[in-house]
Structure formats: C-alpha cells, structure tokens
Design brief:
This protein is α+β, with helices and mostly antiparallel strands. The protein has one domain. Helices cover 28% and strands 30% of the residues. It has an 8-stranded antiparallel β-barrel, surrounded by 5 helices.
Length: 229
C-alpha cells in the first residue's frame, strides 16, 4: 500500500469567531485548524490523467458532514494539485485533493474527525494543523507558501532531489499556482532551498507556523494489516 503523507496549508494563529468573520485589520479571518485529505488511493504518474481534473465536490460535502458530526464547523475547502512521495514504491504520484477549513474544535475533536475521514476514504494518513503563534511552545513545523509554481515542476523537483523526497514527502499547488510545502522546523531551510531550485518566487514567499499531526490508523489495526498482508 502506498504510504501517503498529506500536506496542509498552515497559517498564523486564528481565534474562535463566527465563520467568515473578518479580523481586526479587515482581512478574512483564518480558521482555527485545517484538514488536508483526498479520496484517491491510486498511484498516478501521468499529469494528464483525467482523475486529476475532478472537482471533488461530493467528496467535499461528505467531509464537511463528518466535520459537523464530529463537533466542528466547516468553513469551506479548496482544491489542490498534490505531489506525494511513496516510500513503499520509491516513486511519486500526482493527486487531486482538498484542504478543509475547520472552526470550533478541540484538539481531541480535530484528531477524531481526521481519523473518521482517514477510515472513510481508506487513507493511510491525514494531516491536521492547529495554527499557533510563532513563539508557541507546541509549534513543530512551518509552511512555506511560494507563488509561481506548477504541480509538474514540483514532481520533477522531487524526482531529482532525494533529500527533499525523504524529508518533505511532497507538497501541493493551489489552482492559482501557489506552492505549499510543510516541513519540520529543522527542515525549514531545506524547504526554502528546494523551492528556489524548482523555480519558486521565494522573494514573495510567506512562512507560517503551527502544530502538525499525521493521523494514522490505530496501532492495533496496523498490526492486524501486517499480520494478514
């Protein structure tokens, strides 16, 4: 089975308030957290594969129902073109996915929602992000957002860079061409260097901070899978 590490957009801290509320500076308020996930389980090597053009509308509605049932408030989602590295197969795969804005969830609720999404769509891992101030004690990762990119450039870069494949695992590109790379704090410079190498406009890049969690199958379930595999 392909090991998928899913990537989510990070942001600075956001405080609970009604959905779509504006921040004090008049800009749209960031959500409390985000969940990044997909319903794809296939390896896709062809950038022209029709599965990469699906809008995932029904998928979005189902995930939002899961968020509500789990105690959260969905604030919408956006399509992403992802590229992920498979440690099992030693290759990369293109993937259409979505990241979901979520409000009004505790840490436990967020993890439980992600676990439900993971099981429903047969994913090995779903990534959540809680947005935190830069100096927060629980900050363990950064997101680099870099304009001027394509999913193909991201894939070509990962194929050519073993360190980036094994430490960043992949990334996503928004439909308007913004690269999203998430990295452990100690790999922040690696992410920046990689973005430069593949042609990203790092002069216009934004870096944000948060706490990440890869929500995976429970240990007992993984042991059962290994025993019968």
């Amino acid at each position: 089975m392909v090991h998928r590490v899913l990537v989510v957009a990070l942001a600075t801290v956001a405080f609970a308030a009604p959905a779509n509320a504006a921040a004090a500076d008049g800009k749209p308020r960031l959500p409390d957290a985000e969940i990044f996930t997909t319903n794809n389980t296939a390896v896709i090597a062809d950038p022209d594969d029709p599965r990469l053009r699906v809008p995932l509308i029904g998928f979005a509605r189902e995930v939002e129902r899961i968020v509500r049932a789990g105690g959260g408030t969905p604030r919408g989602s956006q399509l992403l073109d992802g590229v992920f590295f498979s440690s099992d197969l030693g290759t990369t795969t293109f993937e259409r996915s979505r990241d979901f804005d979520v409000d009004h969830v505790t840490d436990d609720e967020l993890e439980a929602i992600a676990q439900t999404v993971r099981g429903r769509f047969q994913q090995e891992s779903v990534l959540t992000f809680d947005y935190l101030p830069r100096a927060g004690d629980e900050v363990d990762a950064v997101e680099l957002e870099v304009p001027g990119m394509t999913a193909q450039a991201l894939r070509d870069g990962l194929l050519a860079d073993q360190a980036a494949r094994e430490r960043l695992f992949g990334g996503s590109v928004t439909l308007d061409g913004h690269l999203l790379l998430i990295a452990a704090l100690e790999d922040a410079e690696l992410a920046r260097t990689f973005a430069v190498r593949i042609g990203g406009d790092v002069a216009q890049a934004a870096i944000r901070y948060g706490e990440r969690e890869f929500v995976e199958a429970p240990a007992a379930q993984l042991e059962h899978r290994q025993a019968i595999g």
